Amino acid sequence: MAKDPVRVLVTGAAGQIGYALVPMIARGVMLGPDQPVLLHMLDIPPAAEALNGVKMELVDAAFPLLKGVVATTDAVEACTGVNVAVMVGGFPRKEGMERKDVMSKNVSIYKSQASALEAHAAPNCKVLVVANPANTNALILKEFAPSIPAKNITCLTRLDHNRALGQISERLNIQVSDVKNVIIWGNHSSTQYPDVSHATIKTPSGQKPVRELVSDDDWLKGEFIKTVQQRGAAIIKARKLSSALSAASAACDHIRDWVLGTPEGTWVSMGVYSDGSYNVPAGLIYSFPVTCRAGEWTIVQGLSVDEFSRKKMDATAEELTEEKALAYSCLS
């Protein structure tokens, strides 16, 4: 029996990340090699022509799983009936702009897109916010789409998670697939805390702790954390453009694991609505280690947290609390 197509929305679809993301979705990277998709692409009116060009390319690529494309500048049309929404569109910070300026622009974008999803998306639509400030944009979206369950609104910290895996694999010169269970705690910003306290590496003689094999705590507590935190800026410096390919790939990983489940014994990092686990203030969208089964994520419980980690986790929570206050002040 052929599966029914899943409707996937990508906002900001004519942009860099969107351009990298839509072919991955159409090829089955996000939802699996046997899952047909209907792509809904939304962008702002000035990008309408470019968006149409992306649609032409999708047609030209003749993806067997792609059952149709909606390319539009109308939020209602874009959101109608969607099962998965990947919110890539947002207002980027430009030179000389204050955080409050960026925040107020994004608050108004996410407020209006939330209303369109609220009214027109399929029941139980899963939402992933990619545009920065991702955690706080997701919180605003949650605020204005009250009928979408809180657990269905997430933000992308899988890119940071993947960056952490990549750094460990490069350091030890091993396959990245042999590293697992790093954690990104907190905000998708330079205060995030990449934590290897519980991470392991597959070796011929079984799973070994990352800390033991790296055997350089100064590096793990210093340069490693800084590299992961600052990786986005390093890529902008090198490419003169922000991370697009890796962000698109991480968005696919995030949704795929959420929908199809995480492998046994493995967790991933997702920005989710805090229930107070690990003494993180409830009501923030905060990155936790999660496992996924049957389309639901669950925060991994009972991990030990040392004093070094506690400080880092609290610092990033504090930043998110400030961002939340700033966003709410833009609403009034």
Question: Can you offer a commentary on this structure?
Answer:
- This protein is α/β, with parallel strands linked by helices.
- The protein has 2 domains: 6-155, NAD(P)-binding Rossmann-like Domain (Rossmann fold, 3-Layer(aba) Sandwich); 158-325, L-2-Hydroxyisocaproate Dehydrogenase, Chain A, domain 2, CATH 3.90.110.
- 44% of the residues lie in helices and 20% in strands.
- The protein has helices at 16-26, 48-61, 75-79, 99-120, 134-144, 158-172, 210-214, 217-221, 223-239, 245-260, 307-331, and strands spanning 6-11, 37-42, 66-72, 84-87, 126-129, 153-155, 179-180, 183-185, 193-195, 200-203, 206-209, 268-273, 285-293, 296-299.
- Strands 3-2-1-4-5-6 form a 6-stranded parallel sheet. A 3-stranded antiparallel sheet has the order 7-10-11. Strands 12-13-14 form a 3-stranded antiparallel sheet.
- A hairpin with a 2-residue loop joins strand 10 (200-203) and strand 11 (206-209).
- The longest helix has 25 residues, at 307-331.
- The radius of gyration is 19 Å and the shape is globular.
- The model has no long low-confidence stretch (mean pLDDT 96).
- Keywords: NAD, Oxidoreductase, Tricarboxylic acid cycle.
- This is Malate dehydrogenase.
- NAD(+) binds at residues 12-18, 43, 106, 130-132.
In short:
The chain is of the alpha/beta class and 332 residues long. Helix content is 44%, strand content 20%. The chain has 11 helices and 14 strands.
